[in-house]
Amino acid sequence: ATPRWLPCPVRPPLPPQAMLLMGNLPASLLSPDGSVPPLLQGRGTSLCPPQLALLYEEVLYTIRHRLGKPEQQHVRDSQELYSYVQKAFGMNEEEHGAIMQQVMELESPIYCLKATVKEAKGILGKDVSGLSDPYCLLGIEARSQEPAHPDHKKRMKAVVKDLIPEDQIHRTQVINQTLSPVWNETFILDSDVVESMRHKLGELTDLHGLKRIFKDARKDKGQDDFLGNVVVRLKDLHCWNDQWYQLEPRTETYPERGHCHLQFLLTHKKRATTSSRTQPSYTVHRHLLQQLVSHEILQHQAGSTSWDGELSSHASTVLYLHATQKDLSDFHQDMAQWLAYSKLYQSLEFNSSCLLHQITSIEYRWVQERLRPEQKAELAESFQSLLTYGVSLIRRFRIIFPLSVPRSTERLQSLLRVLVQMCKTKAFRELCTPSPDLPQMISTALKSGTAEWFHMQKQHLKPMVKSIEENSKALSKLLLEVIEDLKQCQKIWNKLFSTLPGQTKPHRVPPGLAPMQVAEHVQQQLHKVDSSMSRPTAESLFDLYRKLQELCQMKDSLPSRDGPLALSNFHQWFEEALPLWLQKAYSTALERAQRAIQMDQLKPYGYHKHSTSTVDLSTCYAQIVTTWKQLNWPDPEKAFMIMVNLLEDMCKISLMYCKLIKERAEALSLREQNEGEAANKLCIVVNNIEQLRLLMLRLPSQLDWAQLERRMRGLIDPQQIQNALHNQLDSTVACLDHEVRDVVQALATKSIIPLMKFLESELQYLNEHLVQENFKRGLVGGSQHPCPQSLELCFHAEGCGLPLETLHSATFRTLETHLALCSATSRKLIQKYFSNRIQQQLDTSSEKYGAVTIKALYRPSEQKLRVEVLNATNLIPLDSNGSSDPFVQLTLEPRHEFPEVVARSTQCKRNELHPLFDEAFDFLIPSEKCRQEGACLLLTVFDYDMLGANDLEGEAFFPLCHLPGLDTEEDEADMGRVPQTRLPLTHPKPTDEILQLLESRKKDKEAQAFLKLRKQRAKQSKETE
């Protein structure tokens, strides 16, 4: 059995030589007696020395007259218990000896056995119905029936009711017709009738107890049937026993007779101590418990450990012996523990979770009628006292439960749980009327406690010197404490207080500080701030501004509804200091940039191509951006002006940087007197300025101009924003681009231009001393790489130089095309010329010079090209009479591909701008010639002139590769099925790259002949550049 009155499960020890014999007695015998005497409670007050001596006498008396067989969890040696209680009561040897002598002289108590017959199961059925009507007889048998051998049990089984006098037998009720009877009857067995139990235990060593179960069946002889018995030796009993016993038979006829459930408790009567005679047992036990628990707590504190509610084996043994000897009920033991623990909690430090067990036990066993009025008053007073004390701890939770101490939150949560559980109990609601509103009490306590804490912090951080600078520093420290407190409330404390443990409905009782108190205090301290303040004062005010801003942003942690409103306009308190803050940001960045330039050696920084000053400048700009974000000025118009000022400052620093970094490069170059190093310095300068340009371009996103523009919508004209921000930034970036170009030009002057001059002089030398053909071969790279590919390999440098995307620019493509033309033969150039004219013909849609309509068909079987010139339209008038005399000349180009084909012409049509020719011409040409590059039918429309050269009306190019029938094996059956082709007339352009190249080839007769013909046409052309 596990005793309910101890914090840890232990079993009590019992006297070693007691023995109980139990048997079944008739149900018509004595009724049970020995009701539990009423228990009285005394007021729980501190004990004076005389009272402490009486309590010490009580505990020594309890140890001296201990009962029951000891168990392993208890202390068996009484001397150890004496030593323990002597330390617990703080008694010296003289005091202990004197009180011990008094105890030894006191009269011994009367020993009682409190037996409870619970139930039985599996008994024999003696009626014809197969059931029985069982009852029990109990008594203490004073004659020894100890068997000679431990295995010999016959003599113990053969007991009858005549062994015990009839007036000492106790009988239970008869339970009719059952094999599993339930009695739950309690009897107190003592030796008052003959002599004291102590005298009996001193004389007898073989005491027997008898318990029989009979069936109350009236037979002819009037004798009840024997169902079984249980023999229990007193010396085997503990103070508290609760178990099932097997029913033993009288003979071996029915060995299985069932089991019986019994409880035994060894108690005292007529204790001779003063406390037992003058005070209720309940009060004495509470005082003893309080004394021992105080000693346990102090012992743990001396060892720098926290008491967790677990009593030592010595304390458990003493308390258990006293509770059983005084026959205290579980309910009164729980009350005694509650009163003792709740009072000790208010003076000694231990975990409040120890109170949960007691308050839960009281709630479980609560019956108000079991308490006397003075006990009710004492319990109600303990409730009120603990509630008041617990709320006072909550009011000072920042000091009592600091987060720096481990498990502080668990301790506070445990206290809240105890208070909530206590207020929910039936005992609290019935005794404490009207019941207090716990959430409201906690909310009031938190508010008052927070105000006290804030006042304490103000006094602690109060500056010694009454100046604005010192006040602002003190305010910053105070706000730092407030912000940290709010963060702790938001992270930890609000979760504990918003929903109290055990409450189904959440209560809004956050412990945070009301911002109205902060606002009033800060305004009171800053009433003397003006624009004439010093720089240190302004810096301290900026730190204060940041703290207030952070406090204002913690809206979710502010307890009062007017919290955000109390701090909403706090920025107005610092308007006088704002210009000094901006000036400080600018001067700091400027000085750092100048210092960075002075320290810069214009060498690459790490893997980058810019130097250290650019890194420092980037840090300066990042600090300015951080300042803007930290300000986060609430007024949109003022914020816009702040942004304009910051941008102007950064633009000034950028232009200053360009000037100083170029001066730094020049100074380093003069010092080193090395052209190569000077060029390297300029390269670093270019990279630095380019890096600075990128920094400036990132400012709109870093400063979040888009959000600023949204805030300014409706307040400032968008054009004003464009002029003040974007245009100013664009102007600065343009200046940086100009600086880059200037430095690049200077770099080219020092490096690239001399290189090009050297290349030019070398080429000129080669041109003068090499045969022209060999010089051309050298230009195109010989047999390995043509010149463009050589340039590409040179500048790309296998990935270490310019990327291919940058190299393959439009200029490079043009150069590559030009060099390809230069390296081509004259015939290739002529073919290329006609290819370009064919493409020009295909791209032309305008007929400003008129058009000519033809039909063309190629017959593969005859290798014959047939062309029908149908008409010309919209010709321009070239004669003085406003008309023309047109005719069409047909040639196959280029001539070197068709050397044997002569030109053909149509008849001349007089005075016609829309002549109808309708003439056919045949040309014998192989099909492969038609597929050559630039192969075309050139149709030139002239105005016939009698006296001079014919005037050019226009020319059209028909590509031979598009001839109908060229790609078929069979001839077209009918020329009528061939579609007409309308070709707009064009004029040659005055300048042409290919013609210019051909013109340079003076010794190439074929090129010169072609050029002469094209020049004649160009002279007659009406096209301009």
From TrEMBL:
PROSITE patterns (alphabetical): C2, MHD1, MHD2
Keywords: Cytoplasm, Endosome, Exocytosis
Residues annotated as domain MHD1: 542-661
Keyword Amino-acid biosynthesis: no
GO cellular component: exocytic vesicle; late endosome; recycling endosome
Keyword Electron transport: no
UniProt superkingdom: Eukaryota
Protein name per UniProt: Unc-13 homolog D
Origin organism lineage: Eukaryota, Metazoa, Chordata, Craniata, Vertebrata
